[in-house]
Write a sequence for this structure.
């Protein structure tokens, strides 16, 4: 057995086969990244080429090479999950993904029939309101813009109810819940602009940020009292805006729900 082995290792054909195997595995390793994945080719899209040629017609070659290097750096940063070590990079990626989700939703222009159906379903939102009840989340001028934007997303997309307002509001001298208050009474507390906006709000949903003489507020109307409804023709502009706003919120919720089907989020207790 040993003698046969010694004869084999001196055979030129065996040397050739061993060398071929070594070269094969060496080339395979060279063509892989550090994590064992075969290299991805990096190239410019036609749009990128056109943009670079228009911007740098004479030095296109060098700017194209620079752009390719930048794309390589980005791919490598994603490969090693650099964003996990950098909060700023993570925030940029999160905001970009959220932007893509929100703006990928198609909104069709509503028909007259759809608007009429919406009006009938939400007719109490178009009362000539005599009194209303609402909760509000008060934000002082010290609140940052980032905090306001994050809070608005929470209120719109995470099913925050009226009774949850006290979890978010800052201290407000007149409290955060107002019941069966008239237009005149509300105006005496918050001022004319705020009162006018609140009396036009829909029920059972959070408003956009509203200004008052005290600061800014998110408002949730819980009840309206009145005897007469505005006709559709009298409020068609409001119906149109309300329909689009509701459609947008529901569209984003559906998009998030679709994304959630790909993941299992840890239950929050």
């Amino acid at each position: 057995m040993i003698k046969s082995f010694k004869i084999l290792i001196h055979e030129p054909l065996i040397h050739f086969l061993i060398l071929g195997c070594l070269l094969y595995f060496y080339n395979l390793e060279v063509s892989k990244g550090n994590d064992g994945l075969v290299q991805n080719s990096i190239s410019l899209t036609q749009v990128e080429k056109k943009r670079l040629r228009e911007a740098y017609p004479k030095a296109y070659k060098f700017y194209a090479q620079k752009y390719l290097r930048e794309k390589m750096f980005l791919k490598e940063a994603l490969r090693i999950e650099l964003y996990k070590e950098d909060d700023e990079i993570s925030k940029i990626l999160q905001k970009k993904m959220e932007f893509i989700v929100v703006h990928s939703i198609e909104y069709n222009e509503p028909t007259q029939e759809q608007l009429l159906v919406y009006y009938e379903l939400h007719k109490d939102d178009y009362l000539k309101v005599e009194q209303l009840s609402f909760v509000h989340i008060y934000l002082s001028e010290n609140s940052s813009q980032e905090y306001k934007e994050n809070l608005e997303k929470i209120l719109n997309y995470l099913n925050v109810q009226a009774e949850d307002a006290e979890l978010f509001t800052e201290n407000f001298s007149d409290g955060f819940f107002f019941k069966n208050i008239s237009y005149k009474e509300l105006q005496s507390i918050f001022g004319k602009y705020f009162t006018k906006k609140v009396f036009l709000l829909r029920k059972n949903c959070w408003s956009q940020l509203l200004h008052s003489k005290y600061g800014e507020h998110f408002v949730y109307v819980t009840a309206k009292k009145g005897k007469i409804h505005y006709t559709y023709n009298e409020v068609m502009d409001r119906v149109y805006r309300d329909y689009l706003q509701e459609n947008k919120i529901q569209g984003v919720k559906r998009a998030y729900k679709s994304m959630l089907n790909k993941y299992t989020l840890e239950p929050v207790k």
User: Anything to note?
Assistant: DSSP finds ten helices and four strands in the chain. The beta strands are 131-139, 177-182, 210-211, 216-225. Residues 112-260 form a domain with the Chitinase A; domain 3 fold (CATH 3.10.50.40). The two ends are 70 Å apart (CA to CA).
